[in-house]
Amino acid sequence: MVAKQAWNIVQNPNSLVAKLMKAIYFPHSSLFEAQLGYNPSFAWHSMWHARHILSLGCRWRIGSGDNIRVMHDPWLRESANRWVPSPQPTGVYQLSVRDLLHENFKAWNIAKVRNLFSRDAAKRILETPLVSSVRSDKHHVAGNWNGIWKAQAPHKARHLLWRLCRGCLPTRCRLLERRVECNPNCPVCDVETEDELHIFFRCAVARDSWCAAGLSSVLHNVVYQQSNAMDRIFAVCSNESSDTVGRVAINESSDTVGRVAMLLWSIWHNRIDKSNSVSGTTEAVLVRWEKPALGWVKCNVDVAFLSGSGRTSVGVCVRDNSGQFMAGMTQWQQTVISPVEGEA
């Protein structure tokens, strides 16, 4: 909620609250560049820390380009990386986006961009669209998040879309990135490495599910062939009706976004069931100690040997029927015997 209030200040700079906060805390900079200052109020202290949340999901929409710094602000089109990569030639670090446009009309100065930047950076800059109707530089949230939450689907399905776009789903690739040891292959088809694109769009079982749900036209639409799952979901939310993004496969509603949400939820939970069944078959059987009958004691023995040492170790533990320790012993034997012989 605090981040939302900070966003309101960014989006409505002419409001009374925005003017007051700017005059007190950041008169010569933007909210994102402001310093915390000395003895800040609780409200400003909270909003200042909430800027980090906003910076993760917003970028500049290019108007005149005067207020957007080429190397220091997020303004490129890509959702994954909105900054111009470093390093670049020294001269570009002081430029604004306006310096990369033609003087008389709103279009990229292609020759200048290619001369100033590396090939990859220039390609990404020239792929960033310039909308003539946008006349002033303004922050906006990257991605169609409203389209996700407006999908005509149960909350569990919308929440799955949100987790998918935020990169929160524990796919095998994601687990390996977090240094969790696991088999990288998809637990459903066991053919390819499991990431978000594979489990929801490329896996053979998932593709059959899209067809069975009557959404094969969405799956194969050339408009929705982005290189990551988040951009695909945002594209569907922007171009399809909210019903289609949320519709259940058996529901003949017109809501495409809702249908997609429920389909992806079903695919994900099928994957979870398959993963649990696979792990259940390979899980080792746990052997627990059982106490003896009343009036009896139990003696547990274990034997091990170290190869090359010429010695065998023996351990003995005696407990009563309540599990209380009664006696124990450890011993080294100079002869090497097998564990079975030693325990006998």
Automatic annotation (TrEMBL):
Residue ranges of domain Reverse transcriptase zinc-binding in the record: 136-210
InterPro entries: RVT-Znf
Superkingdom, taxonomy of origin: Eukaryota
Name under which the protein is recorded: Reverse transcriptase zinc-binding domain-containing protein
One Pfam family cited in the UniProt record for this chain: zf-RVT
